[in-house]
Amino acid sequence: MQHLKLEQLFKGSNSKLFVVTLLCFTCLFSTRLNAQSYTSNFTDPTGNFSATSPSGASCVAPTLNDAANVADADLNNYLSISGLINSPLTCTDALYSIRSKLNFPNGTTFAPVGYAAGFRVQFSSVLSLSLLQSNITLRTYLAGVPRETVNGATILNLSLLSGGAIVPLYFNATQTFDEVELIINSAVLPLNVGVDYRVYSAFGSIDVLPVSFGNVIAKIQSGNLSVDWNTQSEDNNDKFIVQASSNGKTWTDLGTVVSKAANGKSSVDLKYNFTTPWTGTLMAGFGLLGLLLMPAFRNRWLKAAMVLVVVAMFAACAKEKDGIGNLERESAGTNTVYVRVAQVDKDGKTSYSQIVVAKR
User: Fold this and answer.
1) Shortest CA distance to 283 belongs to which of 246, 317, 245, 233?
2) Is-contact 243 339, C-beta < 8 A?
3) How far apart are CA 338 and CA 113, in angstroms?
4) What pLDDT score was predicted for residue 328?
């Protein structure tokens, strides 16, 4: 008799089941796609970079130090060219060359046409803009084969180097690429001045960041997802949006952090944090079961308890309509959560940090 009642209950609940299923599917697909940025941030930089200095029997050029830093995972690290030139250099080869591959996650193998290709650099002292334009070159590669070589006014942001801030030097690529090279002619180095030129990382980006990101670190612990990042400079910045993904392609907004920079502009290091609860959402399943079984309960206290469960289901689904609950469930299956920080400037344009995996 009890089996018959349950069978009749389920037969009479087809419309309810359809509505709830449709609602859950609507929640499931409430995500969005965004363009990607790539940097030279490798866990192991070995084999992902190369660097050479001017050479010759009587060539005493400033030394190139910590070359691996241009391709390691710490975006606050840098390769440096440092020293003092007391007299004009006489070098057989007068060029510094810094070349790095880009780190492509999730099966991507190159940056598309239209992406900005360049390096984040910081020069302690510079001569004239015309001298910079004639002595700095950017070159892209694909599978080791040269693609584009540019210098002069084609390289954007050269004029900003005189300010001493970290600057993204770049050009807009007209061919695909997976590697970027920065070539500096030692003729650009001033005499009788201590030189400290820093090269932080290579990048390929759909839009050059008005914010220079340092490290992005994400952790899942004690039921929370915590994201820490720092900026080395900001220009016209309004806010940050922390995003997460279970596959590194489809992204969900988790929350917003307002820029600490006065009027959106800063040339000093600023640190940020975002923390949000991070647990699996199973309440929707219990809510569905409660909706179907509610007529079978005659005890008013049981019915009241079931009403609370159904309310919890709708609360969970409201959360999933923002994509968060669904993201938690998907990432629980893969045990991987990808995180990035979107930067939104005061004009509404959006750009992105590198992608990191949340550590558990």
Assistant:
1) 317
2) yes
3) 25
4) 65
What's the CA gap between 224 and 244, in Å, rounded? 13
Residue 306 pLDDT level (bands cut at 50, 70, 90): low
Given this model, what pLDDT does residue 354 score? Answer: 76
User: Which pair of structure tokens corresponds to residue 328?
Assistant: 């938690």
DSSP string, 61-114: PPEEE-GGGGGBS-TT--EEEEEE--S----SB-EEEEEEE----TT--SBPTT
CA torsion sign for 39, 45, 49, 54 is positive
125-137 exposure pattern, b = at least 16 Cβ within 10 A, e = fewer: ebeeeeebbebbb
Which value, in Å, is the radius of gyration of the alpha carbons in the chain?
A: 27
Which residues have C-beta within 8 Å of that of residue 96, sequence separation ≥ 6?
Answer: 51, 52, 53, 54, 61, 64, 81, 183, 184, 185, 186
Greater model confidence, 138 or 330: 138
Tokens of 192: 């009788």
* Count, residues in the chain: 360
**Residue appearing with tokens 């584009």:** 148
pLDDT of 114 above 50: yes
Contact residues for 320 (Cβ-Cβ < 8 A; gap 6+): 24, 27, 28, 30, 281, 284, 326
| pLDDT tens-digit map of 20-33 | 444 444 333 333 33
298 to 9, 52, 286: CA distances (angstroms): 14, 81, 19
Q: Where do the DSSP E strands lie in 206-360? A: 211-221, 224-234, 237-245, 250-258, 270-277, 338-345, 350-352, 356-357
Contacts of 25 (CB under 8 A, 6+ apart): none
Pairing outcome for strands 32-33 and 250-258: antiparallel
Per-residue tokens: 59:
């060539």
Q: Which of 195, 212, 199, 201 is nearest to 126 (CA)?
A: 195
Confidence band, pLDDT 50/70/90 cuts, at residue 283: very low
Query: What is the per-residue pLDDT across 134-160, written as a single tens digit (0 to 9) for each?
Result: 889 999 999 999 999 999 888 988 877
Give pTM, 2 decimals: 0.59
Looking at residue 266, its pLDDT comes to: 81
pLDDT for 96 equals 95
